[in-house]
Every structure is written in structure tokens, then in C-alpha cells.
């Protein structure tokens, strides 16, 4: 799965976030990297146990769970507390794959990382470089969207952030465990939901075919979903 969710964070929230991030104290981003990715990672991030990280992270989760496009694609069961990073000139994150399991030292929560997401908090014109590149079945896709947009992709995908050559790139990043483990099954459920959303305004929610598709959609989640 690899999709762009536009306006996952609204403008008024972006202004608040940037005010906090511009004034924050940052630490070496290697502190949350796995054994392999730490060797290819050069950036900074907010301390994970800091008040700013937790407060902004809670706001990100609230915004995502209220976003129909995100919920339809991710079908989230558990969301790891979002983290925040910045890439200054020369910073980068070479090709890597995220760890399959994530643990939160503060809460003790653990989850299987089915999906990863990057929420862009800088406008594209604020920095050069800093593109997110994700490999999927169709090759490499490059992302440098507007502030507030989110890229959602399989946590098992090879991905990287190209070197920043001007300015600073701010982002939130997170992992989640989906109610549906498999990418293919989750993609089929997402496609069906999109079809229902497309047809319903034209046919009406009470249309018999729409009702049948809705029944199939919910039964697929029941069949493939996890407790």
C-alpha cells in the first residue's frame, strides 16, 4: 500500500506545530533507529519522552482518526505515538526498512508495524532535497508534498529521505498496526470502500447495490480483521 492523504493536518494546526518545533531542543535522530538503520541515518528529532513530542503526537493521532481517507486506507487498530524529526542541510536517511515491532518505553505498549506514515510539516519551497522515496511493486515513487499532507506506506517497504541541500525539513512520523494484517487484503477492502464512496452520491445510500457492497465491505473486515 502506498497512498498520499492530502490535508491530514489542517492549516491552523500547522501554525501551532511549527511554533513549537522552531523553538524546540532537538537530539540525535539515531536514538530511535534500529541497529541497522542507525548507521544510515543523519537527522535530529524531538526527545520521545518530552512534553512537546507527546502533546503534538496526541494531536496528530486525533486528526488522523478523524480523517476518513486515512481511516479507510489504514483501518488502524493501534497507533504508535508519533515522533518528530528535522533534516537540516546535509542530513539524510539512506535506504532502509523499518523494524517489524515497535515498543514505547514510556507506556510499555508494543505493536506490529504494518504501516508507516510521514506527515510533512514544512512547505516544499522551504527546503531543497529531502524527498521521501518509497519502493513498491511499481518501482520508486518520490514525495515532496505540501505541509499537512501525509504519505502512508507499508512498513516493510524500502524507503529513504534524500539529502537536504537548503533549508530545514520538519515532519512527524509514525507506525501503526492495522486491523487487517496483509497489504493485499487491506488494499482490496480500501478499493471497495472507495467504490462505495464514489457510487453512493450518485445512486443514494438506500440503493440496493450500495447496501450489498456495504455488507460485503463489513463482512470482509470481520473475516480478515484481528482482535
From TrEMBL:
Residues 78-178 form the Fe2OG dioxygenase domain. Binds 1 Fe(2+) ion per subunit. The keyword Oxidoreductase applies. Fe cation binds at residues 96, 98, 159. The keyword Iron applies. InterPro entries: Oxoglu/Fe-dep_dioxygenase_dom (IPR005123), PKHD_C (IPR041097), PKHD_hydroxylase (IPR023550), Pro_4_hyd_alph (IPR006620), Pro_4_hyd_alph_FE2OG_OXY (IPR044862). One of its GO terms (biological process) is intracellular iron ion homeostasis. Residues 32-51 are annotated as: Disordered. It comes from the Bacteria. 2-oxoglutarate binds at residue 169. Its cofactor is Fe(2+); L-ascorbate. Gene3D superfamilies: q2cbj1_9rhob like domain (2.60.120.620), Rabenosyn, Rab binding domain (4.10.860.20). Keywords: Dioxygenase, Iron, Metal-binding, Oxidoreductase, Vitamin C. Transmembrane segments: none annotated. Residues 33-46 have a biased composition (Polar residues). GO terms for molecular function: 2-oxoglutarate-dependent dioxygenase activity; iron ion binding; L-ascorbic acid binding. NCBIfam families: PRK05467.1-3 (NF003974), PRK05467.1-4 (NF003975). This is Fe2+-dependent dioxygenase.
